[in-house]
Structures are given as C-alpha cells and as structure tokens.
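SEQUENCE-TO-STRUCTURE ENTRY
===========================
Question of interest: how does this chain fold, as expressed in backbone structure tokens?
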Amino acid sequence: AEVSTQSTGTEMKNNKCKLAKWTVSSILAGSDLLKFGYVTRSMPRSSGESIGHSILGTQEFIPKQFAGQISLDMNNAWGILRVIVDRCMQLKDGKYVLYKEPGKGILRIYKVPLNTFEEDNDDSDDEDEEEEEK
C-alpha cells in the first residue's frame, strides 16, 4: 500500500492532466470504480531495452471521490469546455487543431488546410493498378 500511495502522490504531481482526463472519463462513463496500476521496468538492459515489467501495485477509487482528492471540480470542467466550444463557434468554417502547450496552461487553435491528416488512398490504389497492368 505504501508504494501505491507514494506512486499516486508522484502521479498527481507529474501528471495532473492525465489523472483529471481519466477521472472525468470515468465519471462521464458512469463507472463505479477507477483503477490505477503502477508498473516498473524489470531489469533494464544496457542497450536501453527492457526485458519486461513488474506490477508495483494497484489502487481503486470511486471516481467522484477521487475527483475531490485531486481538486477536480466538474462544474469548472464543464465551464472550460463551454469556453472552448464558444471560441470554436466563432471561427470561420475550416479545419483546426486544438493544441495544449506542454507544461503550460495554454491552449492554442491553429487553422490547417482541409486535407490535413487525410491519406490520399486513391493515388496509391491507381499506382498499384498501373503496376499490375504492366
């Protein structure tokens, strides 16, 4: 239990955003329990590869109670979402990327070309067909 308690404190310090995201997800999904597992690499090799992982421990939380422990206020979370949606509704039609600055509380919205993140499968299919015909 000591390892898990220490791990939870470290995770709360280093990964607040991840814990909040998982907690909100579990609340929205209506989950009765939120379970965390803590693992470590077993015997790292000199080449940097790891042979496997060892489970240090697990912890279970009731999502709404855990939200209170990490000072996650769902009303505040909905308020943040509302601000983001309102801002996006003011944008012209197009495709955008919402980007959170690592280690900072800054969200940025970047407009990107409409074909961004889309693969053009038609060209590769045509090339394959042409090669088969030859």
